[in-house]
């Protein structure tokens, strides 16, 4: 009889499909981004990211407790300081906003894993990820002097209670510099989650509203990767592994699942995918207009990240996904 092979046999019922499912999203895969701002009692919704808020530290604690109760194991903290300057003082100061949030969250929810985004763009007056030449309006960051700022920032974040350091500026040698700084300060056990392949993407627009980090001039194409390149991503991850990275991140995720796959094939380290703000906002906008089924689209997308090789997923959908997974 023809056909002999009938793959549809294993698709007939819900239970059969569950039994042979290859990739499953769980709450353990999820990391939830949070934006900390100075003040008290503040929960300001980001206009371009419905459901995402800038939160004062007291509200961050409330959110962290909710995240933990939903079974999500980790948050990543971004900060918006009171003042910005060319030294990015708010990034590395012991009283910086991320440092305050990390300390208080760790006291309130000690088992929640706190990742600190280790970058400078939210804290510099010009919005770039490090030092610039005086008078430079192109946005070409001075690489090696910036490494010293990143070392100071990482150490201050670890001292404040951050469990994982996540450098995102795409400076050459930033993993080695941070590893050296952490080790010298006694934080040999603190892992580094490197933004190993971070592309100069148009999908970051809403994040720059949330983090108030848009460059005041120029762009970030001299240090973030060209979206047309894939071999270069492998070069970047090889360098970060050699410098001591413990985990590797690909950012963005949706348009770069081929990169996630290639990186996963090239390493035994855990691979994270950042489901970025533009990806989130497009889904939210379509859902609010009734054009898509939000739950089905989100879960299909997260499953796609897992299928492409992601072990961890940073996503603004994390809380909703955790609730849906409990249904």
CA distance, first residue to last residue? 42 Å
DSSP strand tally: 10
Classification by helices and strands: alpha/beta
Helix content: 25-40%
Average of pLDDT: 96
User: What sequence of helices (H) and strands (E) makes up the elements?
Assistant: HEEEHEHHEHEHEHHEHEHHEH
Specify Rg, calculated over alpha carbons: 20 Å
Report on this model:
- The chain is α/β, with parallel strands linked by helices and 327 residues long.
- It contains 12 helices and 10 strands.
- Strands 1, 2, 3, 4, 5, 6, 7, 8, 9 and 10 form a 10-stranded mixed beta sheet that branches.
- It is globular and about 75 Å long.
Task: Briefly summarize what is shown.
With 327 residues, this protein is an alpha/beta fold. It is built from 12 helices and 10 strands.
What keyword list fits this structure?
single chain; 327 residues; alpha/beta; ten-stranded mixed beta sheet; 12 helices; 10 strands; 16% strand; globular
Fold topology:
Layout: H1 14-19, E1 30-37, E2 43-45, E3 53-56, H2 57-69, E4 74-79, H3 89-92, H4 97-108, E5 113-118, H5 143-160, E6 164-167, H6 174-184, E7 193-198, H7 205-211, H8 231-243, E8 247-251, H9 257-266, E9 271-275, H10 277-288, H11 294-308, E10 312-315, H12 318-326
Parallel strand pairs: 1-3, 1-4, 1-10, 4-5, 5-6, 7-8, 8-9, 9-10
Antiparallel strand pairs: 2-3
Helix pairs in contact: 2-4, 4-5, 5-6, 9-11
């Amino acid at each position: 009889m023809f056909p002999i092979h009938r793959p549809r046999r294993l698709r007939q019922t819900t239970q059969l499909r569950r039994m042979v499912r290859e990739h499953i999203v769980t709450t353990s895969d999820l990391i939830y981004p949070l934006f900390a701002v100075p003040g008290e009692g503040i929960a300001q919704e980001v206009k371009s990211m419905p459901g995402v808020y800038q939160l004062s530290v007291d509200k961050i604690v409330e959110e962290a407790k909710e995240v933990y109760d939903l079974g999500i194991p980790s948050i990543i903290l971004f900060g918006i300081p009171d003042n910005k300057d060319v030294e990015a003082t708010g990034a590395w100061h012991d009283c910086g906003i991320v440092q305050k949030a990390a300390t208080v969250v760790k006291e309130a929810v000690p088992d929640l894993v706190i990742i600190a985004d280790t970058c400078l763009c939210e804290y510099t007056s010009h919005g770039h990820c490090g030092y610039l030449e005086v008078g430079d309006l192109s946005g070409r960051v001075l690489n090696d002097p910036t490494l010293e700022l990143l070392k100071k920032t990482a150490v201050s974040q670890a001292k404040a209670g951050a469990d994982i350091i996540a450098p995102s500026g795409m400076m050459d040698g930033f993993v080695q510099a941070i590893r050296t700084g952490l080790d010298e300060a006694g934080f040999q056990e603190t892992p580094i989650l490197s933004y190993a392949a971070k592309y100069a993407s148009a999908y970051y627009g809403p994040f720059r509203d949330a983090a108030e980090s848009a460059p005041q001039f120029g762009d970030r194409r001299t240090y973030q990767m060209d979206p047309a390149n894939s071999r270069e991503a492998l070069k970047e991850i090889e360098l970060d592994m050699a410098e001591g990275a413990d985990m590797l991140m690909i950012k963005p995720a949706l348009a770069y699942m081929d990169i996630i796959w290639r990186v996963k094939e090239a390493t035994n380290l855990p691979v994270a995918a950042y489901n970025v703000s533009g990806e989130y906002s497009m889904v939210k906008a379509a859902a609010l207009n009734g054009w898509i089924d939000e739950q089905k689209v989100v879960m299909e997308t997260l499953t796609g990240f897992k299928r492409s090789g992601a072990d961890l997923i940073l996503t603004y959908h994390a809380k909703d996904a955790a609730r849906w997974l409990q249904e």
